[in-house]
Amino acid sequence: MKKNLLILIAFIGLYSHAQTVNGKIIDAFGHPIENAYVLNTTTESHAHTNELGVFSIEKTTAENILKISALGYKKTTYTITNDTVLITLEADSFQLSEVIIQPKLSAMNVITKIDLETSPVNSTQEILRKVPGLFIGQHAGGGKAEQMFLRGFDVDHGTDVALSVDGMPVNMVSHAHGQGYSDLHFVIPETVDKIDFGKGTYYANKGDFNTAGYVDFKTKDKLENSSIGVEIGQFNTFRTIGLFDLLGKQKKQSAYLATEYIMTDGPFDSPQNFNRINILGKYSAVLEDNSTVSILGSRFSSKWDASGQIPQRLVDAGIISRFGSVDDTEGGNTSRTNFNVAINKSIDANTFLKANTFYSNYQFELYSNFTFFLEDPINGDQIRQKENRNIYGINAELNNKHLYGETEVLYQIGVGARNDQTKDTELSHTVNRNTTLEQIKLGDIDQSNMFTYLNTEITLGKLIINPAVRLDYFKFNYLDKLQVNYETQTQDKMKISPKLNFIYSENNDLQFFVKSGMGFHSNDTRVVVANSGEEILPTAIGTDVGTIWKPFPKLIVNSALWYLYLQQEFVYVGDAGIVEPSGKTKRMGLDLGLRYQLNNFLFFDFDGNYTHARSIDDPKGEDYIPLAPAFTTTGGISLQNWKNFSGGIRYRYMDDRPANEDNSIIAKGYFVADCNLNYTYNKRILFGISIQNLFNTKWNETQFATESRLQNEPAPVEEIHFTPGTPFYLKGMITYNF
Question: Whole-angstrom Cα distance, residue 509 to residue 37?
């Protein structure tokens, strides 16, 4: 009898030790908190919450104490009384010591979380600059999508970086101006809640354009308070911003409306006459089964004039200033309307489904003149690029976590589809925006992309093995309206992209990773049909080896060595309406980042990126990749909540880089510093000033080696053509919170 009793006690103890407790962590308004860290102080088992705030922790029984921490919330403890728990966290000031390095492929996202907390943004340019190593430039009056640079890529306007907002794609396939064109100006920066980014080709849920990396923006589900603000600056700059909480501090549901209006002439001799209006509405709710749903609608429109890119020879001769122009009839107008519905559906403690469906209408008209009178000595070389686009799509992903003995396996199965339809995509030769001299290209594009992927994460103690595979199918249709006979040209193509990653987490403060995978970017439909579907989904093969490390509670260091190979491709040059072949390329480099909290109020950050980029097939000395950055660095010091003051000073530096293949023309580098200072009065009124280009540096925001001819020149000249960067620029603001 005594022996049987001992066996029973031992069995009960073993059962209790192996018990699993399921729980959910929410904020004061009932919204789920993602990536909260849960630690059993008795057994030292731990867990992290998913997108629904749900966690499942092993080896946990009644009377065990859980210790819970999440970035931006007060630490708390919870004593287990049953198998299911609900824990509410209270918001708190940001502390770097609270950062937990997550054992996951996207662990680097903690960097952008830190940067958003310590240095808030108020422009679309600033939210892109929150991605470490990503540089941008504007060269068409403020309304055109920014040119981007990342990991030795001149990404143009998005060809090699996949961008999305709340699951809606930003990159435009087969765009009138360029492949992957990404106009992010419909995002109101004050509504951005999270920036998810990754460099390289290693992510199964990222497909087209994910070669150098991806950036996903998530808008806020709720507002902390309503506010209205006004900003006034030099160059006839004026901005208003309004954020309006529509439901008050209700639990489990929220709704808000955000509006933005901007106008400016810019520093140019010929005013930009730029204006943009933005409006966004969003409703979010937590359902009874812990599922979440959100509905978003937004609309933006803008129009502007531009001075364009000017030749260095005119400035050197003193004929025009750095802010002058050759053809000031450049400019354009654009608009985007979005509708998005997203749901995260809880199925059980270890399974959930997330999905979104979206519709966007994008309208675009751009007038440019890069070569002046090179092609047409009488009328000039102005071109018009125009399109009217509808985008339809759906994404769905099933997440399931399962235990096989001591081995935990996460499955993610995704499916989705996207269809782009454009009407009268146009490239024309024009004069003064009014007269069309020649239609060079005109047609309708219908491009579809259907995909599926399987991503698995196998946890073996401290090691996570992450094999994955993605399958994409493309259908390209083009109706050339300049052909005499009606004919829809069509091609299709399939692409398989395997991935394999290893993440080793020694503890919450040290992680090593080895990442590898294949990715791609699609080519323009007009390229695909012209090239009979051959070599039109060029493969990118990459690998990263690196670490994320907290050597001290208030210091985070991230570093990576990486390599990226890009296969032969064909590029559609939207400005000329021609197809140009581009050979194989290789890029290798080093990324290094630091985040350090000096005290409760001061934060320091630094990012440095070195890249060696070369063409593989070209002879040495003629194998430079034009405009590929070799060395970039950003950094700054931020002040938060010190006696009602906040602000900071930041810099960005890009080294000289080749502007052509033999490095005979150099795009000059630059060092620019910005600063801001804010004061909050009576917890409701915020006064602020900001200065761009604090030291009034003469710098070129964008540069190209271009062959051009002025009206009276006997022969063309190839040299740097540039758009000047903003000079010293002072802006004041006032915001009222209610």
Answer: 13
